[in-house]
């Protein structure tokens, strides 16, 4: 384990160095992501400019959902960004070099990249959330803050697991980059109160591609509409199962890669 | 004289069909996105009969039709350009007796044609389903349809020029990813594809109405009877004017970019 | 001591047939035909520790497939492979620690990082002790001059610099076996010499087994103790180069340059050596007479003394049939 951390720190140092040297690139990248995210926010803003409540939630409450959903997404983006190159590597047969090293190939991928652009997302999420707390009159206590942090940290792995699952599909389907893109996008829709969707879709969003657990449920907790234990009762097992499934699929896929070649 | 460009059109058309898994997925995605939006808007209209001059029926038709016109806003010109510039393969094209931009245009045309063949029937079926399920009474006149169709080539031209413009910019920057996101965001936010422009707050409307992107959703508004003469004709002329402006800008910028490329040796 | 053992290994693939043309593409949208192809067909060979083996064959013959199976990133459809006592595709991680790889076209280094950082990371990955690391890096610097471009990001290095770095990286952890796939491709003559010298030295010093895949037959001649020839998935030759040349390289080529072009027709070699029939071949061109003959059937002395006795010669050039031609012949005729 210490080895991995040491290697990882090498990469982080390099990326941070690169950040400073290629400042403009970094800022442009961060700005672009921010803009992209802001579009969703802008949409909500325009909608609420014309109506009072969405499925019983006020503007601040929906914005809070949005903001809270950003944070784990950003953290995952920061650390596990390299999963995105997996479909291309499989397609081009470039995965070999990861398999030729005496370290776990998945870890090899993960530690290779650190994406400072994602700081923008995290900051945006925190900013929006704080805005909603201050101006929206939403009560926030110390215990709620700690609870929220716990929920957020667990939620990070939902993004990672979904990315890994959809990336692993490339072992069978040749190039699942699109599939990855779409499932990632699915997240954008789950930042609305999911009560607007019919039951079957709500089920998928809560248990199968459980992005609803990332924003909606934690917000319910913050608003006092659900207890912490209720939320974590869903979040923790679903995340664990999802992660296990992701790892299983990844390993199966690797075996297939080894028998089929590139 | 234009015949020499047809192979490019054919090639990119065929390319669209080669990846069958991709296409299937694409269709599923579009349907999925549409269905999600459907639920959202139903919820919005739960307690309001009309929002900003649109009732639920109209909003549904609006987004269905935007789905149709969005096929023609498909353009990867900027990516093709930056890719070729990066790899240096652009030199292959520059030494051939063909115009670089025209060739890109025909390739784009091929992709759009290919996508249309696949997506158009599905978009129309979706719209029909929406009309049936929600029991929407919907009347259109022939002039409306004609204007709608007339807008399509204009939209394609505009989007192509827009993409070409960004493709040129990508010669100068390293972070093409950022630029392409910027490009997409601008288009979605300012065209009305995200949400009908009528919903925007006053201070934004002033800016939006001046810019050319709004014309991308103009044909949809025409069908919905939200635009009348002489607005329709003035709109078309303004759009053509903008296309001309972009063409001019692109002409100048392209000349400059070309010089830069040659100096830096690809 | 045997370090690699390949036993009756076959690797088959399924490929899908695609029809040409626009109509064909749309048709294959709905239905495609499966074809099974054997990339490697029932091959067997073994390698002893410390050997340098040249693995040659035309493109698509099955070379890279074999290498991938040896390195553990591909599993054979049939047969078994043992590398230093373990099965590489079953114990990939353990095997990886013992091997070094250079894939000519693809890099093992990190593109955006400065070269020294790549080495630091590799040190960590392969668990190279500090003292050894410093010794090795110093050694590589001596032979390759790595320090000159250590601080540059890998993507900025020239091909020659990068190949040196790749080689150094592959030997860094003193692996038992090193697989080199086209290590000298695209390099200038001096760089190639350098690299060959290094491989020889490391092999001598550390008894590193080297499996070399290359199209450059000079590499083979200079480095390899033994060569394996593969064609269409089958091994058609397994032995040392001398034996190959001896057995299949029976041709000798002598080029005479005459002093006076007019003399060219005054000598009739064919008539003199008619008894050799097909074992001799004569070509005349202006001032040049080229004689290609089977050295087992005719001594050099006989030809040269005959020619020199009949005409005035200004230059003689004697050479062996190049390895290239020998191999080409083998591909064509197969092993007798």
- And the CATH topology of the largest domain in chain C? Rossmann fold
Number of continuous helical runs of chain B: 11
- Give the strand order, joined by hyphens, for the main sheet of chain C: 5-6-7-3-8-9
Overall SS class of chain B:
mainly alpha
- The geometry of chain C reads as globular
Estimated radius of gyration of chain C: 25 Å
Residue windows where pLDDT falls under 50 for at least 5 positions of chain C: none
CATH class of the largest domain in chain C: Alpha Beta
Q: Give the number of domains of chain B.
A: 1
Rounded to an integer in angstroms, the radius of gyration calculated over CA atoms of chain B is 20 Å
Structure description:
The complex is a heterotrimer of chains A (262), B (266) and C (336). Chain A has 262 residues and is mainly alpha-helical. Chain A has 13 helices and no strands. In chain A, helix 2 runs parallel beside helix 7 (119-135) and helix 8 (142-168) runs antiparallel to helix 12 (212-222). The two termini of chain A are 30 Å apart. Chain B has 266 residues and is mainly alpha-helical. Chain B has one domain (2-264). Helix content of chain B is 73%, strand content 2%. Chain B has a two-stranded antiparallel ribbon. The longest helix of chain C has 18 residues, at 189-206. Chain C is globular and about 75 Å long. The mean pLDDT of chain C is 85. Chain C has 2 domains: 2-9 and 40-246, 3-Layer(aba) Sandwich (Rossmann fold); 250-320, Alpha-Beta Plaits, CATH 3.30.70. In chain C, the strands form 3 sheets. In chain C, strands 5-6-7-3-8-9 form a 6-stranded mixed sheet, sandwiched between helices. Classes of the chains: A mainly alpha (262), B mainly alpha (266), C alpha/beta (336). The interface between A and B is medium-sized, with 34 and 36 residues.
What characteristics describe this protein?
heterotrimer, A: 262 residues, mainly alpha, 13 helices, 0% strand, C: 336 residues, alpha/beta, Rossmann fold, Alpha-Beta Plaits, 2 domains, six-stranded mixed sheet, four-stranded antiparallel sheet, 12 helices, 36% helix, globular
Annotate the secondary structure layout.
The complex is a heterotrimer of chains A (262), B (266) and C (336).
Chain A lengths: L1 H20 L1 H28 L8 H21 L6 H7 L3 H4 L5 H7 L7 H17 L6 H27 L1 H4 L3 H13 L9 H10 L3 H11 L5 H33 L2
Chain B lengths: L5 H13 L1 H25 L5 E2 L2 E2 H14 L7 H11 L2 H5 L5 H34 L8 H28 L6 H16 L10 H9 L7 H6 L7 H34 L2
Antiparallel strand pairs in B: 1-2
Helix pairs in contact in B: 1-6, 2-3, 3-6, 4-7, 7-11
Chain C lengths: L1 E16 L3 H8 L4 E16 L3 E5 L6 H9 L6 E6 L8 H7 E5 L11 H11 L4 H15 L14 H13 L5 E5 L7 H18 L2 E5 L3 H7 L2 E6 L2 E7 H8 L2 E8 L10 H4 L7 E6 L2 E7 L5 H11 L2 E8 L2 H11 L3
Parallel strand pairs in C: 3-7, 3-8, 5-6, 6-7
Antiparallel strand pairs in C: 1-2, 1-4, 8-9, 10-12, 10-13, 11-12
């Amino acid at each position: 384990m210490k080895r991995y951390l040491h290697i990882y720190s090498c990469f982080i140092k390099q990326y941070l160095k690169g950040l400073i040297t290629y400042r403009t690139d970094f800022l442009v990248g961060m700005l672009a992501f921010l803009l992209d995210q802001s579009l969703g926010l802008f949409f909500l803003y325009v909608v609420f400019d014309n109506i009072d409540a969405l499925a019983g939630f006020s503007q601040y409450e929906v914005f809070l959902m949005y903001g809270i959903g950003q944070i784990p997404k950003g953290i995952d983006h920061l650390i596990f960004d390299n999963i995105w190159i997996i479909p291309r590597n499989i397609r081009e047969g470039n995965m070999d070099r990861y398999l030729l090293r005496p370290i776990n190939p998945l870890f090899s991928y993960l530690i290779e990249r650190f994406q400072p652009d994602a700081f923008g997302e995290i900051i945006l999420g925190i900013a929006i959330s704080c805005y909603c707390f201050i101006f929206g009159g939403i009560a926030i206590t110390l215990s709620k803050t700690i609870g929220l942090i716990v929920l957020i940290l667990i939620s990070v792995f939902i993004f990672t697991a979904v990315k890994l699952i959809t990336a692993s599909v490339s072992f069978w389907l040749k190039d699942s980059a699109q599939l990855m893109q779409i499932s990632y996008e699915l997240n954008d829709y789950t930042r609305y109160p999911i009560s607007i969707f019919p039951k079957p879709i709500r089920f998928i969003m809560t248990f199968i591609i459980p992005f609803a657990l990332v924003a909606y449920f934690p917000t319910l907790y913050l608003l006092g509409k659900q207890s912490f234990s209720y939320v974590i009762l869903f979040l923790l097992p679903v995340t664990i199962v999802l992660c296990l499934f992701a790892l299983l699929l990844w390993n199966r896929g690797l075996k297939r890669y080894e028998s089929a070649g590139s | 004289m234009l015949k020499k460009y047809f192979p490019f059109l054919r090639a990119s058309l065929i390319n669209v069909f080669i990846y069958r898994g991709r296409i299937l997925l694409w269709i599923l995605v579009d349907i999925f996105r549409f269905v999600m939006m459907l639920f959202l808007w139903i919820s919005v209209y739960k307690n309001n009969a009309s929002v900003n001059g649109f009732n639920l029926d109209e909003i549904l038709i609006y987004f269905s039709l935007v789905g149709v016109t969005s096929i023609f806003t498909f353009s990867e010109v900027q990516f093709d350009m930056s890719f070729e510039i990066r790899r240096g393969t652009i030199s292959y094209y520059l030494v051939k007796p063909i115009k670089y931009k025209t060739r890109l245009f025909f390739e784009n045309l091929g992709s759009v044609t290919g996508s249309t063949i696949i997506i158009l029937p599905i978009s129309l079926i979706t719209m029909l389903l929406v009309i049936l399920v929600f029991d929407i009474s919907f009347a259109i006149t022939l002039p409306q349809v004609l204007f709608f169709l007339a807008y399509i080539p204009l939209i394609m031209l505009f989007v192509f020029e827009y993409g070409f413009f960004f493709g040129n910019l990508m010669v100068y920057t390293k972070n093409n990813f950022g630029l392409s996101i910027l490009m997409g965001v601008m288009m979605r936010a300012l065209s009305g594809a995200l949400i009908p422009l009528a919903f925007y707050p006053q201070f934004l409307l002033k800016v939006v109405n001046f810019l050319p992107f709004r014309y991308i959703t103009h044909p949809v508004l025409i069908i919905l009877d939200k635009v009348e003469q002489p607005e329709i004709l003035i709109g078309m002329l303004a759009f053509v004017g903008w296309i001309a402006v972009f063409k001019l800008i692109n002409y100048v910028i392209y000349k400059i970019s070309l010089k830069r490329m040659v100096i830096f040796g690809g | 001591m045997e370090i690699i053992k390949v036993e009756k290994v076959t690797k088959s693939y399924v490929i899908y047939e695609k029809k040409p043309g626009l109509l064909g593409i749309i048709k294959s949208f709905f239905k495609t035909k499966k074809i099974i192809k054997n990339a490697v067909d029932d091959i067997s060979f073994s390698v002893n520790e410390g050997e340098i083996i040249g693995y040659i064959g035309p493109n698509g013959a099955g070379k890279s497939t074999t290498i991938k199976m040896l390195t553990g990133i591909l599993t054979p459809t049939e047969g078994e492979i043992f590398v230093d006592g373990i099965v590489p595709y079953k114990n990939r991680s353990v095997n990886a620690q013992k091997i070094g790889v250079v894939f000519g076209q693809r890099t093992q280094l990190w593109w955006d990082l400065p070269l020294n950082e790549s080495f630091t990371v590799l040190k960590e990955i392969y668990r190279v002790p500090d003292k050894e690391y410093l010794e090795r890096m110093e050694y590589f610097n001596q032979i390759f001059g790595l320090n000159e471009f250590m601080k540059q990001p890998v993507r900025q290095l020239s091909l020659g610099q990068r190949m040196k770095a790749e080689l150094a990286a592959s030997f860094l952890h003193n692996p038992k076996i090193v697989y080199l796939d086209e290590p000298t491709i695209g390099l200038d003559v001096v760089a190639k010499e350098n690299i060959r010298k290094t491989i020889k030295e490391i092999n001598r010093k550390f008894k590193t087994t080297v499996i070399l895949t290359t199209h450059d037959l000079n590499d083979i001649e200079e480095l390899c103790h033994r060569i394996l020839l593969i064609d269409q998935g089958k091994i058609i030759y397994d032995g040392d180069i001398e034996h190959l040349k001896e057995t299949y390289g029976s041709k000798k080529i002598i080029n005479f340059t005459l002093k006076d072009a007019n003399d060219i027709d005054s000598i009739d070699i064919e008539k003199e050596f008619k008894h050799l029939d097909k074992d001799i071949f004569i070509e005349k061109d202006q001032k040049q007479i080229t004689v290609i003959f089977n050295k087992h059937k005719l001594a050099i002395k006989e030809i040269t003394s005959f020619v020199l006795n009949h005409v005035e010669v200004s230059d003689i050039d004697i050479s062996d049939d190049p390895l290239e031609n020998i191999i080409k012949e083998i591909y064509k005729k197969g092993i007798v």
